[in-house]
Known about the structure:
The chain is α/β, with parallel strands linked by helices. It has one domain (about 1-235): 3-Layer(aba) Sandwich (Rossmann fold), CATH 3.40.50.150. Helices cover about 40% and strands about 25% of the residues. The strands form two sheets. A seven-stranded mixed β-sheet has the order 3-2-1-4-5-9-8, with helices on both faces. The chain is globular and about 40 Å long. Helix 5 links the parallel strand 2 and strand 3 (about 115). Keywords: Methyltransferase, S-adenosyl-L-methionine, Transferase. One of its GO terms (molecular function) is N-terminal protein N-methyltransferase activity.
Amino acid sequence: MQEQQHDADTCKGEFYVAAAKYxxxxxxxxxxMLGGFGFISQxxxxxxxxxxxxxxxLKNPPSRAYAxxxxxxxxxxxxxxxxxxxxxxxxxxxxxxxxxxxxxxxEKYSSKIDQYxxxxxxxxxxxxxxxxxxxxxxxxxxxxxxxxxxxxxxxSLGLKNNGVLVVKENITxxxxxxxxxxxxxxxxxxxxxxxxxDKADLICVKEQQQTKFPRGLYPVHMFALRPKIxxxxxxxxx
Length: 238
């Protein structure tokens, strides 16, 4: 049993090391962050903006004090989306090259940036009760299922009572898990992602598909999630 566990831990470690090595080879540009599809960035931000604005119209909306950008890369989402809606933002990104470019890009907005966390999401733990919105986009495929569930649970603790965890990810059309050995990631089907939400005691309060992306790309969906315990508290307070 111990030997099997050791083998599993070794495979997991190799999964994360391979992803880190892949991103080390990628240039710190918008095109690099989006896998050669930098031209979709503006369309992506427009879709995210509409979704985020809809969250501020929920019955118990998140406030606009603090956001967290997970897998922040060079700060594309912070600069073009979160900066316009929140007073303060933290960024977490494990690649030091990307983080340095983000710092330069966001230098003139330094009054709005609080912390840069140079760490992988599998090892990151948000400060408790700090965030109104935690934004995770095109990064969760780099977490294995058990680590993703644990990450979601940590995010739940990092949210304020009215807070929302946003997941924006590719979804497979095949209903099967699809593995990319080049960048060491997985793309999950809808049923798998929703199963993981449930395992992490999260409830989806709003879901929307990104529109106007080129044909041939994975469908992209946005999910607004709240911890089940927060949802029951909000109902009781209503």
